[in-house]
Amino acid sequence: MDKNNNTSENVDVEKKKEEEEAKEEEAKEEEARDEVVREEVVREEEAKEEEAREEVVREEVVREEVVREEEVVREEVVREEEVVREVGFRRRLRNYLVDSSVGMVKRSGIPLNLACLILKIFHFRLPFDLILYAWLGNVFTGLCLWIFVMTVFSFFLLLDGCVLSVIEYKLTGNSLNVMDVFLWLGGYELNYTNRYYATIIAAVIYLSLFFGVVFYRGGFSSDNINKLLYYLTFSYLSF
Q: What is the DSSP letter of 188?
C-alpha cells in the first residue's frame, strides 16, 4: 500500500512539474509573442516617423520647386518687359525713318506706284549686283562692299525688320516682299514671321558667300586691310 501511495504521489508530483513547465513554456511563448508585437509596433512607429520625415522632405522639395518656378516666371516677365521696351524703341526708330522717307517721296511728286516699283527693283537686284561686282570688280572695293552689306544686315537686326520693305508697303499698301519669291518656291505661308526668319537665313547664306568671294580674291590681305584702316581713320586728311 505504501508503495502504491508513493507511486501515486510521484506521479502527481511529475504531473505538477509538467504542468508548471507547460505554464512556464506558455508564459515564455506569450512573452515572445508580446515581444514580437512590441517590435512590430516599434517598426510601425519608425515607419510612420520615416514616412513623416519623407513627407516633410517632399513638401520642402515642392516648396523649393514652387520658389524656383516663381523666380523663373519673374525672370521671364522681366526679360519680356526688357524685350518689349527694346523692340518698342527699335520699331519707333524704324517707323521714324520710314515715315521720313515716305514723306520725302510724296513731296517729290513721283507717283507712288512708280516709286514703289523702282524701290522693289532696286531692293531685289542690289544684293546680286553687289556680289557680282565683288567677284568681277576691284578687290578692295569688294572688301568695302562686304562691310557695307554687313552693316545693312546689322541695321536689319537693330530696327527689327527691313526699312525698305516697310517703305514699299507704306507707298502702295501692297505687302508683297522680295522674300515672297523664295517663300513661294519653298511652299511657305506669306506672312511677317516667315519673311523675317527667311530674311535672316538668306542673309546668313548671302554674307557667307560674299565673304567667301572676297576671301578667295584676296580681299582680306594685309595691304587691303591697311588701306581700309587708312580711309576709316581719315588718315588721308591733313590738318
A: -
